[in-house]
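Amino acids appear as letters; backbone shape is given numerically. Here is one record.
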Amino acid sequence: MPDPARLAAYDVLRAVRTEDAYANLVLPQQLRAHALSGRDAAFATELASGTLRRRATWDAVIDACLTGKVQPRVRDVVRLGVHQLLAMRVGDHAAVSTSVDLARARTGPRSGGLVNAVLRKVSTRDLDGWLDEVAPDPATDPVGHLAVVHSHPRWVVEELARALGDERAEELPVLLAADNDAPAVVLVARPGLATRDELPGEPTSFSPYGVRLAGGDPGAVPAVAEGRAGVQDEGSQLVALAVAGASVEGRDERWLDLCAGPGGKAALLGALAHERGATLTANEPQPHRADLVRRSLRVVPGAPEVTSYDGREGPWAPATFDRVLVDAPCSGLGALRRRPEARWRKQPTDLDELVPLQRALLTRALELVRPGGVVVYATCSPVLAETVEVVEGVLEGRDDVRRGETRQLWPHEHGTDAMSWSVLTRW
């Protein structure tokens, strides 16, 4: 039988392929199912997540070594083997022999010979050698070259290039490479409930409440287990801090998180609101995600209200909130580091549905905020159609809104997800 770590990694890939599972959700289940911890859990995590991220690169290499078609379940085994050979410190013999064992256990005894033959051929070159053969010529097809070398769909490469702009074009390969790096686990100390000093790890560079966890299970940290702290990317923390830090005129009593699921920003906002004597309403239209928001807010003082309405409608009266966050549903292309399968599921046509929704939510938020209050429009995407173009489209022809701070974070520059936000003041 193959070792449990490789079995767990394969079972993650199979669930992602056949059940549309999310790797970040199924991976912990598989680690528990195979009783993995410590180094074995870390190995399985890198093997599964890394293979999913680098799928396009590994498929190009595999296809160069094949003379015919291969069943999807067998290709999963070969992808895992290629990742070990070309991206992990696993010896050639170990990578090949354990992959053959895995194939026989999960896909049938006759697949072992094919897996052995393909991986032995892959092992004859290092990664750079294979990229020289399988990647398109950068002079004639620069987008295709980057798509294979850095394992991104072509359209995503094009959108990220557009978001960076001509003046930062040379950063594109670095950004794409950063999307393939495993992200650090970042914790947040919720104000009034925990302090950053009681959390293990190195303080974050920009958020005064965060730490980068050095390793281990974040759920084993007492403050996290008790809900006084949580797991939250630093970029997400900074969005909440932008909402709380924006200047308002007059009262500052009612805050609204219009799209609150799964609840990380809402928990930080709720804690900050309570410290100022304000109250938070956290709205999430999907009931199961609203339950996650309630769980995140369970120990936040001030009893933040959790509602479940379509944010474009809802029962709230116009001009009644002092601060509104619109963390809009988006393509999520800013979080490709932590959602390894997401890049292969997103399509450019997704924007056709997302952009009208984003514009409608921002329009509604500007109706709900009072004159002198602020709206922060945020996405976990750097795609211009979802960020500045949404804001510009909504503000066109309006003279009652002033645009303030606009920020775009980048994983290669800030070490965060590529969060984007704009601060808008209603007049």
